[in-house]
TrEMBL record:
Lineage: Bacteria, Pseudomonadati, Pseudomonadota, Alphaproteobacteria, Hyphomicrobiales
Family, similarity comment: Belongs to the ABC transporter superfamily.
Segments traversing the membrane: none
A family per Pfam: TOBE_2
Entry keyword set: ATP-binding, Nucleotide-binding, Transport
Annotated ranges, domain ABC transporter: 6-236
InterPro entries, per the entry: AAA+_ATPase, ABC_SmlMolc_Importer, ABC_transporter-like_ATP-bd, ABC_transporter-like_CS, Mo/tungstate-bd_C_term_dom, P-loop_NTPase, Transp-assoc_OB_typ2
Protein name: ABC transporter ATP-binding protein
Alphabetical list of SMART domains matching this protein: AAA
Organism annotation: Aquamicrobium soli
One GO molecular-function entry: ATP binding
Top-level taxon: Bacteria
């Protein structure tokens, strides 16, 4: 296995008495597209600023290719940053904007012009070489900013909410282009966003942050389907949360008791005690349980409300307790109907925090 492109070791940062990053450790692999996802104040932009050299951490180390870059200024470290506002020079042509970093590094005029043309071709804008930024659309200016960063051939490219200023349709288009460009150049990308759909569309590795801590990390499908924490279960979109009690563990089989009934689930590392089950709306089914699914119990529908992307359904269990489920919109859960719920085992998350 190759050495990490970036290693973050026991990183903490404080603004005065307020600690915004708490003892973070993380490896970023070569060619990896890492997305930092979290709400405002979670520490993701602070972490990006430390990686770029714009902030020095209160504690910890940043190693790039094994070299300690913790105190190294932005211009000296092998990173470049693409900002949300693009920060293009309005008086310069697109080609001059892209070549600006090369010019500052003393690259000859003919060579920097060649590299600027090649990099603009990479982002599909070779025809815009002599235009000014104001003559381009928002999406095109974003690609110029990307080209200006890539022409420096960084070991690590940092993107600070680069699609935030674009409208929804253009944002979706640029997501596809960003991912394709990253795969072509093979550079490790670190991308900050608070948009869950954007994060899942782009990430090889998704890192969920809360209050300056990493609360979940993995491939997007795993983080979405089987989150590691209650926070990531709810922050990553709508989720059904069911309180449970692990009443017995035999090998990897856990027996769970819920208000809807008792069932078994195959999981590694489960212990007796309290637990929470998490299931995304699209993964719950009603009706007789197939052999390859897990029965979640049964109950009477007492409320069914269409919520647009899902249906909110309250079910009264035999105990009289009401359990709120979030179901696919096409599931016809009718008030007064008795239903049995089930899901595929790999779609059921089990949390013990």
């Amino acid at each position: 296995m190759s050495a990490p492109a970036v290693s973050i070791r026991n990183l903490s940062h404080a603004f005065g008495a307020l600690t915004v990053l708490h003892e973070l450790s993380l490896d970023i692999e070569p060619g990896e597209y890492l997305v930092l996802l979290g709400p405002s104040g979670s520490g993701k932009t602070t972490l990006l600023s430390i990686l770029g050299g714009f902030l020095q951490p209160t504690k910890g180390e940043v190693l790039i290719d094994g070299r300690d870059c913790t105190r190294m200024p932005p211009a000296k470290r092998p990173t470049t940053t693409v900002f949300q506002d693009y920060a293009l020079f309005p008086h310069m042509s697109v080609g001059a904007n892209v070549a600006f970093g090369l010019r500052m590094n003393g690259v000859a005029k003919a060579e920097r012009a060649r590299q600027a043309r090649e990099t603009l071709a990479l982002v599909g804008l070779e025809q815009a070489l002599d235009k000014k930024p104001h003559q381009l659309s928002g999406g095109q200016r974003q690609r110029v900013a990307l080209a200006r960063a890539l022409v420096m051939k960084p070991r690590l490219l940092l993107l600070d909410e680069p699609l935030g200023a674009l409208d929804l349709g253009l944002r979706r288009q640029m997501q596809e282009e960003l991912k394709a460009i990253q795969k072509r150049v093979g550079t490790a990308f670190v991308h900050v966003t608070h948009d869950q759909e954007e994060a899942m569309a782009l990430a090889d590795v998704l890192l969920v942050m809360q209050d300056g801590r990493i609360v979940d990390q993995g491939d997007p499908e795993r983080v979405y389907t089987r989150p590691s924490t209650r926070f990531s279960a709810t922050f990553m979109g709508e989720n059904t949360l069911i309180d449970a009690q692990v009443t017995g563990v035999s090998g990897t089989t856990a027996t769970l008791q819920t208000a809807l009934g008792t069932f078994a689930l195959d999981r590694q590392g489960v212990r007796s005690g309290k637990a929470t089950l998490t299931i995304r709306p699209e993964n719950i089914r009603l009706g007789a349980t197939p052999p390859d699914h897990v029965s979640l119990g049964s109950g009477e529908v007492v409320e069914s409300v269409f919520q647009g992307s899902y249906r909110k359904v309250a079910v009264r269990a035999a105990s009289g307790q009401h359990i709120v489920l979030k179901l696919p919109v096409d599931v016809p859960a009718r008030i007064g109907e008795r239903v049995e719920m089930h899901a595929a085992p790999h779609h059921i998350g089990l949390l013990q925090e």
